[in-house]
Amino acid sequence: MSDTEERVNNETQEEQQAPVQRTVSANTILLSAVEVALSRGAFRMNEMDLITRAYNIIRAEENQRQLLAQQAAQENAQEQSNESD
């Protein structure tokens, strides 16, 4: 088998794997926009403290929401597994 055929076969196998599901929320988009603006110097120094505090609050809430969603999904999967037994 040639190198090209092997790469094509490997890429095909990777594509057939289950896609990773990502949830995008308004908070995630907002946080990304703030990160971009910060990296481009869009805020004055006296605004940075307020923006950083707000960013940290929203990030913590978003992380908590994602954790709860993962736990709920795991519990649902476990319940479905128990029901099928």
Describe this structure in words.
- The chain is an all-alpha fold and 85 residues long.
- The protein has helices at 3-16, 26-39, 45-84.
- It has a domain at 43-85.
- α2 packs antiparallel against α3.
User: How many DSSP-defined strands?
Assistant: 0
In terms of per-residue confidence, which ranges show pLDDT below 50 for 5 or more consecutive residues? none
Indicate the mean pLDDT. Answer: 79
Estimate percent helicity.
over 70%
Query: What string gives the helices and strands in order?
Result: HHH
Distance between the termini: 45 Å
Annotation field: number of helices: 3
Give a short overview.
Helix content is 80%, strand content 0%. It is mainly α and 85 residues long.
Fold blueprint:
Layout: H1 3-16, H2 26-39, H3 45-84
Essential attributes:
elongated; 3 helices; mainly alpha
